[in-house]
Write a structure and sequence with these properties.
7-stranded antiparallel beta sheet; 167 residues; single chain; 44% helix
Length: 167
């Protein structure tokens, strides 16, 4: 429990420091027109913070769900389509997921650069998903957030067979 509190405190400290760095450099840039050092500082702060924000999002929001659904082997009946768009909770990954559907799982594998930043592959069993809404593109995970993806991925969940015709 103490370790979890320490991690949370560290995360909060990093958020405060990065927010302060951004705000200070932004105000400096706005109040110093023509000051190239202010503009360069703002640019460096923004560029440095972007991968850190992405790391924090994937480690804090994506990985906890992925831990519940470790990557599994694909079945022989698997259908794969690359560069699909998915959203998991508030994390949206447009054209960044390789999706594979088989009789047992929906396999989600982020593209390489997102895996480097912490987005782990996962295999979600069909019985862990419940359709949500009428679009056929959104499901609720039984122990997690909502998952949104291409309609073709959820045809097994809705129809019980692997008809790929309404892609």
């Amino acid at each position: 429990m103490e370790t979890a509190l320490m991690k949370m405190a560290l995360v909060m400290l990093v958020i405060v420091v990065f927010t302060a760095a951004f705000v200070v450099s932004l105000i400096w840039t706005i109040n110093s027109p023509g000051n190239s050092l202010a503009g360069i500082t703002l640019t460096v702060v923004c560029i440095a913070e972007t991968p850190i924000i992405i790391l924090a999002v994937f480690h804090g929001l994506w990985r906890p769900v992925a831990r519940n659904y470790p990557e599994q082997e694909h079945g022989e009946d698997a259908i794969t389509r690359k560069f699909q768009s998915f959203g998991l909770g508030i994390v949206n990954m447009g054209f960044s997921i390789h999706a594979t559907v088989d009789a047992s799982y929906l396999h989600i594998r982020p593209v390489t650069w997102l895996r480097v930043l912490g987005a782990s592959p996962m295999s979600i069993p069909w019985d862990a998903m419940k359709p949500k809404g009428a679009t056929g593109r959104v499901v609720s995970l039984t122990d997690g957030p909502r998952l949104e993806g291409p309609k073709w991925c959820f045809t097994l969940l809705q129809s019980g067979d692997q008809d790929d015709s309404n892609a």
